[in-house]
Amino acid sequence: METQRIIEFPHNNMDKRPRKRPRLTWDMPPPLPPPKVLPTIHCSQEFGNAGISNFSYPNNMFHRGIPHNGSPPWRPDDKDSHYVFAVGESLTPRYKILNKMGEGTFGQVLECFDNERQEVVAIKIVRSIHKYREAAMIEIDVLRRLARHDMSGARCVQIRNWFDYRNHICIVFERLGPSLYDFLHKNSYRSFPIDLVRELGRQILESVAFMHDLRLIHTDLKPENILLVSSEYIQVPDYKFLSRSTKDGSYFKNLPKSSAIKLIDFGSTTFEHQDHSYVVSTRHYRAPEVILGLGWNYPCDLWSVGCILVELCSLCLERVFLEPMLS
User: What ranges does the record give for the region Disordered, renumbered to this chain (predicted)?
Assistant: First the structure.
């Protein structure tokens, strides 16, 4: 899996972009030690399926000190500015850490239990570096815009909450299934049936059209950023491998039980009116106009979609053989 982005946010041109909202005092990084325990400032905004409510300051917004079963003692970030945690700890008194789901250039994603809503969620914890914090705030603005117009929540991942915790922007999402890339990887890169690819393609195109109608360009479409809604799968005979040994179960391949998918990762999303001169997209899915430096717009997303569909219905030989050589 390629985790390194070609585009670095906020990028040199990023500073020219207007901020979507003024910086508030609780957005500022908390003071560093000498205190052995850094007070936890929990700054959040709740989002529901019915749209975005007006911002308000509830009585329990600020949690100062460490309450019973609350946040762990302060500890420094690792050398790459990732948040250091232990499974079983709390991320603020509200969220209990269950597992680590993944890690990328932006930070890491943790599976947590929301004690208030009594549900499992995914929390994206952004590295405590200025450019990644800025990109995270842009992603939050994009997610809010998408949530206001996607009332059914069927196209893009839904934001539940966000807060600034010990200089890390934390974005709370609904818990979804594996990405299409992870599913292919665990399935030995075996292709999907053409009917399934057709259904996945329909949903991807509808989601991209929805974003384009809102004057948004995703710019980083790839199988890693398309998640299945459910983790359930079924096993079916793989007739291409019937002549091989069954010791590794090669007679069968896994297929998603449900074809429902959602787009994720809007940290690279750009508005139509913003600068389009820098390089975007992961190289496997990068449009020719981006490679040639001719400037790009909505069509770069469609090129990426075409690359994804070819990959899903092929044996993904590019991933198996070429990626190690290009890494």
Answer: 1-30
Fold of 180-326: Transferase(Phosphotransferase); domain 1 (1.10.510)
Classify 12-174 by CATH class.
mainly alpha
The answer to whether 13 touches 275, Cβ cutoff 8 Å, is yes
Q: Dump pLDDT digits (tens) for 110-166.
A: 999 999 999 999 999 999 999 999 999 999 999 999 999 998 889 999 999 999 999
Cis peptide before 93 (omega within 30 of 0): no
d(CA 216, CA 208): 9
Task: Answer yes or no: 220 catalytic.
Answer: yes
Judged on CB neighbours under 10 Å (0-12, 13-18, 19+), 56 is exposed
pTM greater than 0.85: no
Residue partners of 188: CB distance under 8 A and separation at least 6? 250, 253
